[in-house]
Amino acid sequence: MEIEWLIDQLKRYPNLQAEDMLKALYQSEFGCAHFTLGEKQGLKHILKELDGLSSAYTPADLVEPIGDRFCRVHLAKIKARGLNPATLARLFFLSSQTKPENQNNFVAKLACFLDCCKKGTLPFDPVYVQTLIAENQKSGSPAIHHSPKFHQLYHPAYRVIRADYGALLPLLCKIDTVMRQKESAIVAIDGNSAAGKTTLSSFLAQVYDANVLHMDHFFLRPSQRTPARLSSPGGNVDYERFLHDVLNPLSKGGSFTFCPYNCKTQSFDDPITVTPKPLRIVEGAYSMHPTLSGNYDVSVFLSLDFASQKSRILLRNGVSMQ
Fold first, then answer.
1. DSSP 8-state class, residue 226
2. Which residue has the higher pLDDT, 141 or 270?
3. Left if phi > 0, otherwise alpha if psi is -120 to 50, otherwise beta: which for 165?
4. I need a surface site. Which of 45, 96, 156, 307 has the fewest CB within 10 A?
5. CA 61 to CA 78: how far, in whole Å?
């Protein structure tokens, strides 16, 4: 087990106690899986904590890593960064659904913690740490509380969420900022093939009540595939029809209908009716074509290295589609 983030804990909290390190280890493995309240109740608790925040200590960062799987999001930083408390409550609730990979992982982390104390890498009495671990294991490894000294000095007010959610917080902060300024917003997600556009759009749809519109429904029909058209960047996408059938109606706010083009059958599928929601997501290659880009409030481009891209495409499409 890597101990860099444990040392980082000491840098962030020079006066933390062994109990606080044990709590960080617990969170790094179990996250917030012990959370049993619903999402609405979780939001109420966040709003209450925000009202009672102490100015005696302010964390340096919005996100604090605790291992590879989870992170802490500090409430004192969310307002300045533009994150809606409801968004954090949603992330916290979704993170609580993440199950521990293996109970033995936590046991291994505890053993590493104790070993670091014995070697002097961490400045805690190994005898005391061993007692703490034994008592925790005897009780069935319940959730651990911060020490009184930690509460007195650092006034902890945070939520533990998945680390991959934490990595997306800059985007969510941007979306929330726009959503506060406007009644609705459109997010475009473009990028390389297999870079994760569909995965990201699905995640955003989990976090927000959102429409998801796919550029894959707007490839060119055979009659449109002229050499001149296909030679231009993004020319294989019918961006004119997407603008006319989707983006223009979205700007008007009412329900509308469009027909997705099916490349396999080379025909139009049954019409899809869209009732616009506050957040609208457009995902797919060339969604940020110059003809379309002026219609978006937030734009995201995803990229990845060639080796990873090849591996993902092979996994997704199979050997026969190489």
1. -
2. 270
3. alpha
4. 307
5. 10
Token code pair at residue 27: 């969170």
Q: How far apart are CA 310 and CA 315, in angstroms?
A: 9
**Residue 142 CA, distance from chain mean position:** 27
Which residues, in sequence order, are CB contacts of 10 under 8 Å at separation 6+? 16, 122, 123
Task: Find tokens 């979704």 and name the residue.
Answer: 94
Residues 6+ apart with CB under 8 A from 118: 126
Nearest-angstrom CA–CA distance, 100 and 29 = 6
Helix extents (H) in 186-242 = 197-207, 227-230, 239-242
The structure's pTM equals 0.90
Separation CA 264–CA 248 (nearest Å):
27
Contact (CB, 8 A) for 233 and 198: no
Q: Which of 31, 43, 17, 13 is nearest to 101 (CA)?
A: 31
Q: Are 55 and 182 in contact (CB under 8 A)?
A: no
Single out the residue of 244, 193, 248 nearest to residue 216, CA to CA: 193
DSSP code, position 60: S
pLDDT tens digit string along 36-87? 778 899 999 999 999 999 888 889 999 999 998 999 999 999 999 999 999 9
Contact in structure between 119 and 3 (CB atoms under 8 Å): no
Predicted confidence (pLDDT) per residue in 171-192, tens digit: 999 999 999 999 899 999 999 8
CA distances from 177 to 18, 250, 281, 296 (A): 39, 20, 16, 14
Count the neighbouring beta carbons within 10 Å of the beta carbon of residue 174: 19
Per the CB < 8 A criterion, the answer to whether 278 and 297 are in contact is no
Between CA 139 and CA 136 the distance in angstroms is 5
* Degrees, nearest 5: CA angle 298-235-192: 50
CA dihedral (243, 246, 248, 251) in degrees, to 10, reads -140
46-58 pLDDT, tens digit per residue, is 999 999 998 888 8
